[in-house]
Design goal:
Blueprint: E1 6-13, H1 16-30, E2 34-41, H2 55-67, E3 74-79, H3 88-102, E4 106-110, H4 117-129, E5 134-138, E6 151-155, H5 157-168, H6 181-194, E7 199-207
Parallel strand pairs: 1-2, 1-4, 2-3, 4-5
Antiparallel strand pairs: 5-7, 6-7
Helix pairs in contact: 1-2, 1-5, 2-5, 3-4
């Protein structure tokens, strides 16, 4: 049975990892697995007027801490939001370095069908950089026009609560409809029904190496 001990989350923007697989992160951390999180955009240009440029960086540090990720395992880059396609080769090199440094057993990244240009770059270059690793795509329904749910991770109430509490740290993003707790819980409930669990998160599994 596949039992990853080192898991790397690739987030194009701060909060993507928490939204797509925050419950899974909380579960893995609670089980004593080592979880790493790399975010590529701090999105200062997307912040509401009047907020400090480092707002999302601070919120990401708090949110990942709530989930149980060690501060030393958080890697933050500062590429410009919506401009990752122009930095594709440099991002690939960053990912290759992460692979060499961390040697993860499993990588979770945006799904194939994600239409956001930054998410597409992290997905495509992630597949290249971690081609000898198990990897799966996490679900962001507002960006996924289609999503093949062929891999589920069951969540407890505690796992899901940690996810919702982590997302509440993103006060600068609280106005977004996909940040609402009722949406997060409803989606987890739907995915749970599909795998006979109270709650779950769904993924697209691209490669499994046991």
């Amino acid at each position: 049975m596949f039992n990853p001990q080192k898991i790397l989350i690739l987030a194009p923007h701060t909060d993507d990892g928490e939204l797509g697989c925050g419950g899974t992160i909380a579960k893995f951390c609670a089980e004593g697995r080592e979880v790493f999180y790399a975010a590529f955009c701090l999105c200062s240009k997307s912040l509401p007027a009047g907020l400090a440029a480092d707002t999302l960086e601070k919120e990401c540090r708090k949110a990942t801490s709530v989930l149980g990720i060690k501060p030393a395992n958080l890697v933050l880059f500062n590429y410009e939001v919506r401009e990752l396609p122009q930095s594709r080769q440099q991002i690939l090199e960053e990912l290759l370095l992460l692979n060499k440094k961390i040697t993860p057993d499993m990588v979770l990244l945006p799904a194939t069908s994600d239409v956001h240009q930054d998410h597409q770059v992290i997905h495509q270059e992630g597949l290249r950089a971690f081609k000898n690793t198990t990897f799966a795509g996490y679900e962001l329904p507002w960006n996924n026009y289609s999503f093949h749910t062929n891999f589920f991770i069951r969540l407890s109430e505690s796992d899901l609560t940690k996810k919702t509490e982590a997302l509440k740290e993103y006060q600068s993003q609280a106005h977004r409809n996909y940040m609402q707790e009722d949406f997060i819980r409803s989606l987890a409930k739907v995915r749970g029904v599909q795998c006979n669990s109270a709650y779950a998160e769904a993924f697209e599994l691209y490669k499994l190496i046991s």
